[in-house]
Design a protein that fits this description.
The protein has about 575 residues and is α+β, with helices and mostly antiparallel strands. The protein has helices spanning about 1-25, 205-215, 245-250, 260-275, 300-305, 340-355, 380-395, 530-535, 550-585, and strands at about 40-45, 75-80, 85-90, 95, 110-115, 125, 130, 135, 145, 150-155, 160-170, 175, 180, 195-200, 220-225, 280, 320-325, 325-330, 360-365, 400, 410, 415, 420, 425-430, 485-490, 495-500, 505-510, 525-530. Helix 1 runs antiparallel to helix 9.
């Protein structure tokens, strides 16, 4: 009788828990792209929040230099390949003033000691070092020369393995404290990074700190940085408060000067993250930084190691890499993107080489969005879209991440401004927190439609035109939120991509104001690949596959099966526990 009573009570408890699990799953139902296309939703800017915040001063504890002499700082990781990792850092002191003299980059060595056990370094990697200068041949403008920037590639690493490392110059000796990183699993349809953080237009403001603190709390395994990193060209040369409108603050400036020590402050600001997880970057317009002799992008090109050569690219402005079963393509919006150019040829070759049976997910990123319903930067990079969109659609890119617009927006699947279930999901995350404040005006708001002469790109041509088809035919702007814009909100934040398997990936956008709220999200959706629909015939890039009732039906079935699998796994866990308990009672 005691045995029966114990068993029955346990069984009843299991049934109650099963019921609670089912109810919880039902209450937290997360939509999928199979449920789309979605009716457009706009969440307006919360007037109780500030649209922006001031730049952090260079004396801020997270920006000032905290090492002495030639000890490493600004340590950062970047993926080279599944079996190799870049380690970068800076030593020595930068100089800024009217007269600066570059130091000898060979005066400090570039070494990385590493191994699989803490304190036991079985291998040593050596690399290169370099310095760069930012020079202005105008009276009163300050010049800059960097500290020594080191890059070392660690080769022959094992996938899915933790390594401990120190970097620096052992002959001085000046080695860093111990850090560690974990290599990603071998490319496979069954292996994926745990969480990939996506940020754009970060800067160095109080809002930036909220973004990074929130991101760090979400424990990412990689950072995808989609351009406009430091906003060094928005910071006053004399220090102090940043200028949200540079041309307004300095109408007579002969060149857009940049305060290069902001790059050093930014490297220190990011080091707690980048010394242990890889950060993959792509350039934005704030990285152009023109100087004497027509030189541009000097800081970006010198400070960051990217797998350009490893991916067959001859330029650090565009490259690709694998992270488990995801193939990432990083494109340059501020270098030649025409179909007759080197970047386009490289992109086509790279897409042709992707084996979707090994890396099912294909994710692209660049700075300036093609699909954007905000007034800011509206249709600014239409020329790039006209050159490249068809190629990306032809090879069935799954997701595209952009920045540039200082707000959040997620699109319905779209191709050539037409809803298409095989088009990419475009997501704009230019809401990192920079000095230029959050964008709040939409191109479809009354009186907010830009003219064709507005939003001229800093690189490339102008291809703006009225829509030739669809509900906005004959107009430059829609009179309501476009059908391809699924959700938009004017808030600062960041995103997390969690690929579940070869067809499901969970995308979550986190708002800064939700930082201390438990389980709060600004936007969340499962992005679902449909290879059986979209990969069956790729010969005709113009083929349109409209949404229909069968797609909707499969949505309900697939999503139900996913929810059921979650429930079953939870129930099995509960049954296992109570099975053990009943065995104990039986004995």
């Amino acid at each position: 009788m005691k045995i029966c009573t114990t068993f029955c009570v346990s069984l009843a408890t299991v049934l109650v828990m099963m019921s609670n699990i089912v109810m919880a799953v039902a209450e937290t139902h997360i939509p999928t792209t199979l449920d789309g296309p979605f009716d457009p939703v706009t969440r307006r800017f919360d007037p109780s929040l500030r649209r922006g915040s001031d730049d952090l001063p260079m004396t801020h504890p997270r920006l000032r230099k905290n090492v002495t002499s030639n000890f490493p700082e600004q340590i950062a990781l970047a993926i080279s390949s599944p079996t190799s990792m870049w380690v970068s850092w800076v030593t020595g002191d930068a100089q800024i003033g009217l007269n600066v003299t570059p130091v000898d980059p060979a005066s400090v060595g570039s070494e990385v000691w590493y191994g699989k056990k803490s304190g036991k370094y079985t291998s040593v990697g050596k690399g290169d070092s370099v310095v760069y200068s930012q020079l202005y041949p105008f009276e009163g403008l300050w010049n800059y020369t960097s500290g020594i920037i080191h890059h070392v590639k660690l080769k022959g690493l094992e996938p899915g393995t933790r390594y401990y490392y120190k970097c620096g110059d052992s002959s001085i000796p000046a080695m860093s404290q111990e850090h560690y990183f974990e290599t990603f699993p071998k490319p496979s349809p069954n292996n994926y990074p745990a969480r990939i953080a996506v940020i754009g237009d970060l800067g160095l403001t109080s809002n930036s700190t909220s973004t990074i603190d929130h991101l760090n709390y979400n424990d990412p395994s990689m950072i995808l940085m989609v351009g406009d990193l430091t906003y060094a060209n928005q910071y006053l040369t004399t220090g102090g408060k940043g200028a949200s409108c540079y041309s307004c603050a300095f109408p007579d400036a002969p060149i857009r000067e940049t305060y290069q020590p902001r790059w050093d402050g930014w490297g220190r600001f990011m080091e707690p993250l980048t010394s242990e997880i890889p950060m993959m970057v792509i350039e934005g317009n704030h990285e152009i930084e023109p100087q004497a002799g027509g030189i541009t992008f000097k800081s970006y090109l010198t400070r960051f190691a990217v797998p350009a050569e490893e991916s067959g690219s001859k330029s650090n402005f565009y490259y690709s890499f694998d992270a488990g079963g995801i193939h990432f393509i990083m494109l340059g919006a501020y270098v030649d993107y025409n179909s007759t150019g080197a970047q386009f040829a490289w992109l086509k070759k790279d897409l042709q080489s992707v084996d979707r049976s090994v890396t099912p997910w294909l994710v692209a990123a660049w700075h300036s969005p093609w699909y954007n319903s905000y007034a800011s930067h509206y249709q600014e990079f239409e020329c790039m879209r006209l050159e490249m969109e068809e190629l990306l659609f032809r090879y069935r890119v799954d997701i595209v991440f952009d920045g540039h617009v200082h707000a959040y927006e997620r699109m319905n699947r779209v191709f050539n401004y037409t809803l298409d279930p095989c088009g990419p999901v475009y997501i704009t995350v230019g809401d990192g927190g920079n000095i230029e404040k959050v964008d709040v005006d939409h191109a479809d708001d009354p009186g907010k439609c830009p003219s064709a002469g507005d939003n001229i790109p800093e690189f490339g041509g102008v291809c703006k035109s009225n829509f030739s088809t669809g509900p906005a035919k004959g107009n430059f702007c829609w009179n309501k939120q476009p059908e391809w814009s699924a959700f938009r909100e004017s808030s600062f934040g960041h995103g997390i991509l969690e690929v579940v398997n070869s067809t499901y990936a969970l995308w979550t956008w986190h708002r800064n104001q939700d930082n201390y709220k438990e389980n709060a999200v600004g936007d969340q959706i499962y992005i679902v690949r449909q290879p059986e629909l979209c990969m069956k015939d790729l010969k005709d890039p113009h083929q349109s596959l409209p949404y229909n009732s069968s797609t909707k039906s499969s949505s309900a079935i697939n999503h139900l099966s996913q929810d059921v699998s979650i429930i079953i796994s939870q129930i099995l866990g509960v049954l296992f526990i109570y099975g053990l308990l009943s065995q104990v009672e039986w004995s």
